[in-house]
Design brief:
Distance between the termini: 16 Å
Order of helices and strands: EEHHHEHHEEEHEH
Largest sheet: 4 strands, antiparallel
Shape: globular
Number of helices: 7
Helix content: 40-55%
Structural class: alpha+beta
Length: 196
């Protein structure tokens, strides 16, 4: 696709997708250079997500469908019909570092009480809403209480080693040479980087 700068495991990575994530990192790391912000986005978000997506595609598709069903029901003001055997709303609270980047990135712009769209973190889909917000002059210090439904497609007990193993087997192609420095040197080595 147009704008593709990298390809990890045959999955195209567009510049605008990475820069969108990098702009959220810039809110909490304003001193960082654009290249460093891209490194943070790729290392902490994009690469782990792509690795996780390739581990069990069928289970991932099932979890995504369940999340979409819940999202539609929540928009109508209720939960899917049937016995309460599915995900339950879990409350999380804290600052940027407590909630994790992906949750914080979505929650910081949500109006209290409004459900997010379905979001994906490495190994799980989520729907979340802000319950309370205590603003700070520094966005990373804004205290949030969120409610979230989680729809995992990787096992919680092994998600980290599973993703690390998938990353070890990954292959990266750099299509746009100006993006070479955005990929940390250790990851270029780990992913056996090629340039066409």
């Amino acid at each position: 696709p147009a704008g593709t700068v990298l390809v990890l495991n045959d999955v195209p990575i567009r510049a605008d997708e990475v820069d969108s994530i990098a702009s959220a990192f810039a809110i909490v790391e304003p001193q960082d250079t654009p290249v460093q912000l891209r490194r943070l986005a790729l290392s902490n978000s994009t690469f782990p997500l792509i690795a996780a997506q390739g581990i069990d595609p069928a289970r991932r598709a099932s979890a995504e469908q369940l999340a979409q069903t819940y999202r539609e029901a929540l928009n109508k003001g209720d939960l899917p019909a049937g016995p309460l055997t599915g995900p339950m709303e879990v409350e999380r609270e804290g600052y940027f570092k407590d909630l994790g980047f992906e949750f914080w990135r979505v929650a910081i712009d949500l109006k209290p009480g409004v459900w997010s769209s379905v979001i994906e973190t490495p190994g799980s889909f989520h729907i979340l809403r802000v319950k309370t917000r205590k603003e700070s002059s520094r966005p990373g210090r804004t205290h949030l209480t969120i409610g979230a439904f989680d729809f995992p497609y990787l096992d919680a007990a092994t998600v980290r080693p599973d993703i690390e193993g998938a990353l070890d087997r990954s292959h990266l192609t750099i299509l746009e040479d100006s993006w070479r420095d955005a990929v940390p040197a250790a990851l270029r080595y780990r992913f056996h980087v090629e340039s066409p």
